[in-house]
């Protein structure tokens, strides 16, 4: 199934974007931040880079799920569903208001697997982001492609062991939050705003909270517990979806002497849905 896909490994694409004032202002509104300066040249929280570098594919080139159709830059993976399985990011310098940034994306690997819900193909994307003063960040993303939802339920995986949290904050992602983030990032993936599609086509019980939204609000909570710090690097793994309108909890441990901490999101049943190992320092 992946024989012809391996020729896509090594392909690269460059895209430029600007950390424009309106984007920073809207992100501050979404996260209830009043402490982020909007002056040109002011530093922006590292982890806010997630709002940049949208695909902005023409409307005529979108697939039925709202993503750009496969076969242009992304390979024509013969599986219909996709999700972000994990990411690893290292920040080298803060983006600044008004900076023009460039991202080079490389298809680094394509790996078939069989999971509890059937066949899967993992696509590893490596992003290198540069700005006026050099390297800003390096990110690797694991994109999981999945089979169509089957009528028979997938066998349940044992829940991840949840550690004791030093702090916990209730979190209630709602449709307005998902809409505002998707609009800000120009993310057309329908599972995040089209409840009928998410339920009837992809088999989810409700809207799926973007992994980037869960990561964003988890870091915002962590930074409230470490004032004056910045996220320097992190390794995130999606364990299971978080659903809109259902209770969730943002959890974490304080950084150790080197700034390392474990952060996670618990779903309404108390199971770990997203786990992040992060380095957070001043």
Describe the protein in words.
- By secondary structure, the protein is α+β, with helices and mostly antiparallel strands.
- The chain has a single domain, classed as Thiol Ester Dehydrase, Chain A (Roll), CATH 3.10.129.
- Helix content is 15%, strand content 34%.
- The chain has four helices and ten strands.
- It has a ten-stranded antiparallel β-sheet, with helices on one face.
- Strand 9 and strand 10 form a beta hairpin.
- Helix 1 packs antiparallel against helix 2.
- The chain is globular and about 50 Å long.
- About 2% of the residues have low confidence.
- It is an enzyme of class 4 (lyase).
- Its EC number is 4.2.1.153.
- InterPro entries: FAS1-like_DH_region, HotDog_dom_sf, Mitochondrial_HTD2.
Please describe the topology of this protein.
Blueprint: E1 12-18, H1 21-30, E2 81-91, E3 100-115, E4 118-131, E5 134-146, E6 167-171, H2 175-185, H3 195-200, H4 211-224, E7 230-238, E8 248-252, E9 260-266, E10 272-281
Antiparallel strand pairs: 1-3, 2-5, 2-7, 3-4, 4-5, 6-8, 7-10, 8-9, 9-10
Helix pairs in contact: 1-2
Compressed to H and E, one letter per element, the order equals EHEEEEEHHHEEEE
Radius of gyration from CA coordinates? 19 Å
Q: What about the largest sheet?
A: 10 strands, antiparallel
Within the CATH hierarchy, at the fold level, what is the topology?
Thiol Ester Dehydrase, Chain A
Strand content: 25-35%
């Amino acid at each position: 199934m992946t024989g012809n896909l391996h020729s896509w490994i090594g392909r690269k694409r460059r895209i430029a974007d600007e950390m424009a004032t309106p984007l920073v202002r809207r992100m501050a509104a979404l996260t209830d931040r009043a402490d982020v300066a909007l002056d040109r040249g002011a530093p922006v929280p590292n982890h806010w880079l997630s709002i940049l570098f949208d695909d902005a594919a023409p409307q005529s080139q979108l697939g039925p799920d709202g993503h750009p159709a496969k076969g242009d830059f992304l390979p024509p993976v013969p599986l219909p569903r996709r999700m972000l399985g994990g990411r690893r990011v290292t920040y080298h310098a803060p983006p600044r208001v008004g900076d023009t940034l460039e991202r080079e994306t490389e298809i680094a690997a394509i790996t078939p697997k069989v999971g509890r819900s059937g066949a899967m193909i993992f696509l590893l994307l490596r992003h290198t982001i540069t700005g006026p003063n050099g390297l800003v960040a390096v990110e690797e993303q694991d994109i999981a492609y999945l089979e169509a939802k089957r009528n028979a339920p997938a066998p349940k995986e044992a829940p991840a062991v949840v550690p004791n949290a030093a702090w916990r904050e209730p979190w209630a992602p709602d449709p307005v939050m998902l809409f505002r983030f998707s609009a800000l990032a120009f993310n057309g993936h329908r599972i995040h705003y089209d409840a009928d599609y998410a339920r009837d086509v992809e088999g989810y019980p409700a809207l799926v909270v973007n992994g980037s939204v869960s990561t964003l609000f988890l870091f915002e909570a962590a930074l409230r517990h470490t004032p004056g710090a910045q996220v320097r690097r992190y390794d995130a793994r999606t364990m299971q979806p978080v659903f809109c309108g259902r209770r969730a909890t943002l959890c974490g441990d304080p950084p150790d002497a080197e700034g390392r901490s474990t952060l996670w999101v618990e779903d309404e049943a108390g199971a770990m849905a997203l786990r992040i190992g992060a380095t957070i320092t001043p």
